[in-house]
Amino acid sequence: MLKYLIKRLLQAVPLLLLITILCFVLIDLAPYDAMDAKVTDKMTPAMIEQMREEAGLNDPLPVQYLRWLKNLLKGDLGQSLINKTDIATDLKEKIPNTIKLVLPSYITAFLLAIGLGLLAGRYKNTWVDKLINSLASIGLAVPTFFVALLFIYYFGLKLDLFPVMGMNSLGEDSFEDFLHHLVMPYSVLVIGFLPDLTRYVRSSTITQFDEDYVTVQKAFGSSAGTILLRHVSKNVLLPMITKLGMALPMLVTGAVITETVFAWPGIGVYFTNAIRSLDYPIVMAVLVLSGTLVILGNLISDILCAVIDPRIRVGR
Amino acid sequence: MSNLLEIKNLRTTFSTMQGKADAIRGVDLQVKENEILGIVGESGSGKSVTMKSVMGLLPRSAKVTADALIYKGEDLTKKKEKELRSFRGREMAMIFQDPMTALNPLRTIGYHLTEVICRYRKVSKKEAEAIAIEMLRQVGIPSPEERMKQYPHEFSGGMRQRVIISMALCCEPSLLIADEPTTALDVTIQAQILDLLKQLKQDRGMSVVLISHDMGVMANMCDRIAVMYGGVLVEEGKVDEIFYQPKHPYTKDLLRSIPRPEVTRGARLQAIDGAPPTLHNMPKGCPFATRCQYATEKCFEIMPETRVFSDTQNAKCHLLTGKEE
Questions:
Q1: Do the Cβ atoms of B45 and B229 come closer than 8 Å?
Q2: CA-to-CA distance for B29 and B9, rounded, in angstroms?
């Protein structure tokens, strides 16, 4: 088992390298660079050129890349080109905030999706299913930022129920205050995650109900409820575990848009600003992190599947 | 022998995208106590649908009506779904064509068995396990104690079919419906499973309805045979009557198409020309008319009445001269 894990992780290394090279090249292809974001009217071309030289942006691309990679291997994510802040310190501060928002939202959406999906799949083509399915379709079609804006307009401005931005009121850091700020971005994210997951569970449930073993169970007097709970649900959950594993990178990049709209002090605003100003060390750091999480997430879900599915367990 | 199950005028219609499909068009059939009744017919003739209609196993798109479905003196058509559910398994159990997919891949064999045992008998989990092990032994599964902890994928097809049969036995049903139980198995395993069914009928006094299109299997296994075609029961009789004095032209053609061992190399296998009617386009007359070499104009227009030839044999054909029912 340990050997398998190590093998899988080693296999991931070339993939990660490839991702970083690709990103590096893409960023370099942009017609401007980070220094253009810093330029003001008062700077002479010579000053700008000097800044560029200092940031190492004038070096050939392979040199830049290898320098970045060398630092990464030493555990140094580098500094922001714009603010000169240490990226590792920034991330340490911002990622927990993102996790505080994404984790409860995803778990809520995941559990709700299992409930709603099983219900819709079990009562396929009845009004329950049609209601759930059409709401899910609408949810899938409406972009998150639009939902966020609607929430801000109705619950933030019109009804004045919840604060519209930030994670804490100024000078306040009680848990109640945090929860009060959490409600709106949390709800928006749940609505964002829910439709896709629900439809997934629904179609998986429908497929399972068509399986022969369901007819056999029925022929032996099982009620539909028993079949659903004791037999179908476990089979439906199996692919859901893969989904769960794949959601791991969401802990970092899962709420970029929502965070930006609600000015949540997580990775979102930090990341979008970095992209806008082509602050490549930040962009690369976040990408490496989420890339690693994708690979880890896949590995974890494979292991969990093997734990649950006896067919895989024996195969190894 | 008295009737265990009596089906009167069973009709099953599926509503599909292409309109209504009449799968069963007025079937009368009796299953007697402690007999093996064979139902034969081509694919789509309605053999499985007939028994699934009785069991209530068809999807919602199926509409099942019958004048009566009398089981042990009780009319099943007058029962609510909840009462019917307790009939399934305990009174009538059904085993299916493909044992490979009939068990939940994520549950152990023991789970499958103890679940049905606990449903019908008031026993503790320990006792249920003991019963399950005993049942596995009875259907011929070696070292059942260890097998209980295993998952379906660790069993061969034949072994899985035995597991499903033992599941049925756990419920102690009076009627076992076997829907092509050996089609997916190879020939030696097929013989073993059929022997097992025969033995269970003798030992336990069960009735078995065996659905198959294999006339050889039928000849070996059955006490009586019902021949279905196009959703209609065209002939029924004792096994000797069907094989030695078939009346309906379809039965005759069916018997003629059994491959014989003495067939010389290069000789063609006998087949019935044409294809059976599709469900959406059922003729108003005899369903076999288009393929029948004796068909007259009347055959295409009017559905034939049942002609009775003996206490046990009857057939539906205009050309036959038996007594009218």
A1: yes
A2: 9
Amino acid sitting at position A125: N
Q: Which of residues 183-202 of A touch B (CB under 8 A)?
A: none
Give residues 158 to 177 of B whose Cβ lies within 8 Å of A: 164, 167-168, 171
Strand B207-212 with B19-32, pairing: unpaired
A308 reaches B (C-beta below 8 A):
yes
Residue B132: pLDDT over 90: yes
CB-based burial label for B153 (10 Å; 0-12, 13-18, 19+): middle
Question: Which run of H or E residues covers position A271?
Answer: helix A267-276
Q: Which residues contact A142 (CB under 8 A, 6 or more apart)?
A: none
Other C-beta atoms closer than 10 Å to the C-beta of B43 total 8
- Residues of chain B with Cβ-Cβ distance to A222 below 8 Å are 115, 119
- Using the CB atoms, write b or e for B9-33: b if 16+ within 10 Å: ebbbbbeeeeeebbbbbbbbbbbbe
> In 3D, which of A305, A281, A285, A288 has the Cα closest to residue A12?
A288
Identity of residue A38: K
In single-letter form, the type of residue at position A87 comes to I
Answer yes or no: is pLDDT of B119 > 70.
yes
Closest CA to A35 of A12, A57, A19: A57
Sorted by where each starts, the structural domains of chain A and their CATH numbers stand as 2-73 (no CATH), 94-273 (1.10.3720.10)
- The per-residue DSSP string of A54-102 comes to HHTTTS-HHHHHHHHHHHHHTT---B-TTT--BHHHHHHHHHHHHHHHH
C-beta of residue B33 within 8 angstroms of C-beta of residue B2: yes
Report the candidate in B177, B233, B238, B270 with the shortest Cα–Cα distance to residue B45. Answer: B233
A306 burial type by CB count under 10 A (0-12 exposed, 13-18 middle, 19+ buried): middle
Cα–Cα distance for residue pair A279/B68, rounded to 1 Å: 80
- Which residues in chain B have Cβ-Cβ distances shorter than 8 Å to A224? none
Question: Two tokens at B287?
Answer: 């369903």
Kindly state the tokens that stand for A17.
């390298």
What pLDDT does residue B1 have?
65
Distance CA A151, CA A188 (A): 8
Q: Which amino acid is at B106?
A: L
Q: Copy the structure tokens of residue A187.
A: 């709800």
**Nearest CB partner across the interface for A311, out of B88, B105, B119:** B105
Torsional sign, CA B147, B148, B150, B152:
positive
pLDDT-derived band at A115 (thresholds 50, 70, 90) equals very high
DSSP state of B235: E
Contact yes or no for B96/B179 (Cβ under 8 A) = yes
In Å, what is the CA distance from B13 to each residue of A215, B9, B226, B231, B253?
A: 19, 13, 21, 10, 28
User: What confidence tens digit (pLDDT) does each residue in A251-303 have?
Assistant: 888 888 898 888 888 888 889 888 888 888 888 888 888 888 988 898 888 88
Q: Are A205 and A232 in contact (CB under 8 A)?
A: yes
Question: Residue B243: its pLDDT value, please?
Answer: 92
* CA proximity to B47, closest of B83, B10, B2, B5: B10
The Cα of A164 is separated from the nearest Cα of chain B by a number of Å equal to: 47
Structure tokens at A189: 């994210």
Q: State pLDDT tens for residues A184-193.
A: 999 999 999 9
Is A212 in Cβ contact with B102 (below 8 Å)? yes
Q: Which residue of chain B has the CA closest to A238? A: B106
